[in-house]
Each structure stands twice: as C-alpha cells, then as structure tokens.
Amino acid sequence: MMEKRWEMPRTQEQYKEDIVQVGKELYEKGLLVGTDGNMSIRIGRNEIFITASGICKGKMQAENITAVDMEGNVLSGQKPARDIRMHLAAYRQRPDIKAVVHAHPPITTGYAMSEVSFDKVALPEVMFALKGISVTRYTTPTTIEVPREVTRVLKEYPESETILLANHGALTISTTDVYDAFYKMETLEMFARANIVSKILGHTRYLNEEQMKNVNRLIHGEPPDSVISPDTIKEE
User: What is the value of pTM for the model shown?
Assistant: First the structure.
C-alpha cells in the first residue's frame, strides 16, 4: 500500500521515488496501460522532473525520470515524455502547481470521447476534491495546440484542478505533491463510474444552485453548520 511521505525538505531521490510509486499505482489500478500517461513534479523555480518517453509506468525506475527546465531543455536523463509541453504549460500558467498527472482512466476517457459538459454537479466530492471538472476542445496530440488549450482552460477556470482532455484522457494538478494529483485522478474515475450507474438507473439528482453555493462556502472555510438553514439544525 502506497504511503504518503511528509518529510521536508525532500531530496531529488525522494522526488523520483514519489513519481515511481505513483506510476506503479496508476498502472496497477488500471488508470493507464502500456506506456501511456506521464507525471511530473516541480523541484525548483525553473526545473521539473518528468517521466521519460516510452516507459511502462508499472515497471518504471528512478533512472526513467528526466530533469528539464521550464523551456523543455533536458538537464539530465532520457528523452522526456511526448506530452512535456502540456505539463510545462500548466506550470507556467499556475506557478503554485507542484505536480501534474496525465493518465487515461478508461471510463473517464470514454467521457472525454463524448460531447459532455460538467456544468451540473451530482457529487459534492467533485467540488471538494477536484475543484470542478474543466473540459478542453479537441487538440492534435503532442502539437502546440495541446499546451495552448490547457493554458486557455486554466485561465478560464483558474480554480479547476482537473481537466478532461477531449478525445484523449485526463490531467490532474496539485499545489501540494504528486500523490495528491494521483488521488484526484482516482476520484475522477470514481465519479465517472458513479455517473454511468446513475444514468443507467435513469435519473441523476444534480445539486441545485443553493446546494452548490453551500458546498462552495464550505470549500472556502466556513463552519459546516453555518451554511445550512437554522431550521434544519435540531437540538440533541
């Protein structure tokens, strides 16, 4: 079972081990297959670690982690992941981002292949954990279209930490560490599964405007009982 590490400050070896462990978890949980997906961690103002190209994340080793600067120049290691420009775009647009995970969870990717919108929310956890789900327009993989579209989405939805990449997969970001970005990917796939079941059963009970407003108030730190009507609070 993967355990989150909290030691500070972290060494480069520890950062690499974090990526290796998250890659194995993603692979074992079926959130990516073959040599799919990539992960990165910001380790300095102008430097990130990113997974190397063409590596199975379930068999990845520390030597398969590449150091690059914010222009994409390789500082050490192997050829970086093909999606490197997508990662760099996220870091440039949001300097507070510490880690990025890109994967192809099967059900989530099914949604990415469909014309769907997540303007309506049925699970408060989507707002708590994922800060909402943004959806990109279609872009040709590995081209300049991808980072430009990711930048656009992050500008339009600055609080979003989960992006559905049209006809591609998903991207999750974290302001803490790569484990948190991985947990968001897990939560996203859970939501996609639950949403499918809800549609099969024939009705999805979406949160109304007031309910969404109350959840947002909780997210911004208000005391739990302060966001609901006093009439609903019963004395014990």
Answer: 0.89
